Prior knowledge:
The structure holds 3 protein chains of 3 kinds. Chain A is mainly α. Chain A contains 3 helices and no strands. Chain B has a two-stranded antiparallel ribbon with strand order 1-2. Chain B is globular and about 70 Å long. Chain B starts with a helix and ends with a helix. The relative contact order of chain B is 0.11.
Amino acid sequence: MSVLAYGTAAWLMLVGLYGIVTSRNLIHMVICVSVVQSSTYVLILSVGYRVNASAPIFADIPPGSRAVDPIVQALTLTDVVVEATVVALLLALAVQAHKRFGTLDPSELTPLRG
Amino acid sequence: MPLTVAVPLLGAAVLAAFCKVLPRAAIDAIGVLCAIAVVTLCALVTADTGHMIVYWFGGFHPHGSVAVGISFSVDRLGGGMAVLSAVLVTAAMVYSVHYFDEIGSLYSALMLVFLGAMVGFCLTGDLFDLFVFFELMSVAAYALTAYKIEEAGPLQGAINFGITNSVGSFFMLTGIALLYGRTGALNMAQIAATLSGHPADGLVKVALLLIMGGLLIKAAIVPLHFWLADAHAVAPAPVCVLFSGVMVELALYGLARVYWDVMSGPLASHAGGLRATLIALGVLTAVIGAVMCVAQRHIKRMLAFSTISHTGTFLIGIGLLNPHGLAAAAQYVVAHAFLKAALFMAAGILLHRFVSVDEHELRGRGRGADAGLRVAALVFVGGGLGLAALPVVGTFFGKSALESAVGDAHGYAWVIAVLILTAALTAGAILRVAGRVFAGWGPEVSRHHSELSAVSDMPETLGPHDRTPAVMSATPAILLVVGLGIGLVPSLRDAIAQGAATMTDRASYVARVFDLHAAHTVPVPHAPLSAEAFVFAALTVVVAVLTAWLALRPPSWRVARTGERVLTPMIVAVRRLHSGCVNDYIAWVVAGIAVIGGALALI
Amino acid sequence: MSERARLVMFLAGGAGLAALLGWALAGLPAFGAFNGAYALLINHVVVAQRAATDAVTAVNFDYRGLDTFGEEFILFTSVIGLAVLLREQRGEHTGPSAQTSDEHRFQGSSQALRGLTLALIGPIVVLALYLDSHGALTPGGGFQGGVVGAAALLMVFLGGGYMMMRRVSPHGMVELAEASGAAGYGLVGLGGLVFAGVFFKNFLGGGTPGQLVSAGTIPFSSMAVGLEVTGAFVLLWTEFLDQALMVSGE
């Protein structure tokens, strides 16, 4: 089970990076960035998982019962917001780049080199 | 203390809420006043910091050895970096008042968010909180880079910046998650306490690698540096002031913090190997940055590569992994920040006047007699000499301290030569610009002489202007004076020495955070200035002037021609690697991290 | 660099990175066997200390309130950033003119869709308010509620078209709501400083766990964040929709 959970995180990171490196389209590239970020959700949440434990909501179960880690869930919420914002900004840049250059291919954006 | 972060962020919210209602002058005033308030608050906090103050948000004091809430754990170096950030933001905001012809209140709001994020990054004692402020800083920085959306360059620069740095922050977060999985803690002191006493295994080493990777990308360490030149070349000049002056240095500060106060326990037995790795990276960065700096004709891009070269130098100081190196680097950072800020502002004056920062296009055009151009000329000459460590001004004290720290480290004396050479080359390039633009020296070179296209012109302001507004000349002039003179303040040197000693004392850090009895930290004693320091500094200045001279008056000796024939293809090859294509950058990042990780695995 | 060289470099580096990640992940506790001291402590004290039954919300808005403060401003910054990046430029005309507004309806709009979306708007708003206010008790909180609330506006767009969406959410109002949500959260923190001497101190009494008015400042923080998130998402969507309409209108 460890292999599956942690392995998924590692796989998402690597495959997302592969996508960024080979991408020919900025929108596609931004999505790949969010794939890399998903790897952090999977990792953070799997780290805090505990077997035979309930959700950390003590409305129906007595306080102090065995529950999974609430910290990692809060961290993931933060992480999700970060992703939404970064993706929004990068997409806005892609929109403007398309207007300016007429292309979304990152290798055809030319003004900066050398 | 919490107000240091709350004031700029709430100020930004107020500006954004009332941006349509308030007049321009009120917006500028609110922005600048908030920034000044932050300078004052940070200065008060830092002055109050004997060794360290710990502030628990929400009043959650630790429960035994478990941190419940988030702390600001402020020592002299952290507080000092926060003051430096706030001072530069204030300067940049004052400078911007007349820089843009059209400027929304949103610009001021972004600057304030950027400031709040930098201060939070400096002060926090929690690893995840460090990530949050790091990300906040990045998001504000992406938007500021692309502020001039009318141009093509800023878009490309911001995309390259955004994607590369996002990948870096995911690395960092993965590293934090690994440490959390091991220790069940997020507070740095608690992680340090849990980790110490166990030898470093794969998880600890890779966690260090990933956190370090994120920070090294931000710090623009070769081969993770490509984004920086792109972003700096295109971001508005006052924004570059912050990027070059503090943002990249903050990343190195974060590295020092994470190493010393979190991970130095298990890594103590590997310190030798880590030192070699970091110094190798620093040397590589310093050299590549210096070579690329000399090869540029776009002034802002040239200054960007000068910054890359200097961050390499700072990494060498931090990489020595002793308090002397850290103190020297910190002192170097302060002088560099003011000088580089003044230089970017002077470049901004040129851009404002001539709508160009191409060195050859501007040849001789800076000979005007009015205040703006005089200040710009003065800043380029003074900044060049200051960065060349002309004795007793500018970076002299920091550089001398670093040379003596490197000389004391066993087997690294040769690095002194790198320090001298790279400081001289980058300073020489600045002096060359001064000679060409403000004195009209040097042969005329046509626009298309160079085979690699220079960056296109990017007017940040509408059309050329006849005169420079007074604040735009006054601000860089003041920064120049401060930058040249700051090394002479003895109390600053003492404070840095004490701060470095506190930061590198992990046991006391942990004890102070958990309110236990902490041993008194002994400040690092000063190494007295030796005669060597003056020799090295003189050598640096001579080489710098020579570099500028050779570029402006190319000699016709055969040796020089042969040298040129050999060197040019190498420089062109290095320049070609800076392809402007973000796919390449990420490939470099992955390969670079893997190589650094391989080195860490072996040590 | 040629694409081939780039790929080779990436694959070599990626293989190294994969090995390093595997090495590190092997050092983690087995999946499910985690016993972090921080998490155990929070789970034990949260109800008694904070009168909150949802530990995640308590961590978000109280124990680690500063993180959320920073995070909220990340969202806020991206909205400002987007307004800056997608601002109207010289020679550009943003937004559709009133006459053509009917054409800017979501393509494929039908009576059935309009009816369905209209029927959903009410429940969505109620659900959003419920999530915002009950964050301390049951799963939910300002972030979740905020996103759900923004979805109500998306329903307006789907059913009533773009102009309708702009009419029910005037830009200035949303901007004000968003900024005051961001500032409001900070003010709750400042309240702690003023009334209890410590920033983000939960300065209201805990109350009885499980009741709507309990957990001190948490419901207020949660509401402020909800307002901010709803505002932010509506602004993000309208900015992008403006762009889409401008492109299609050209």
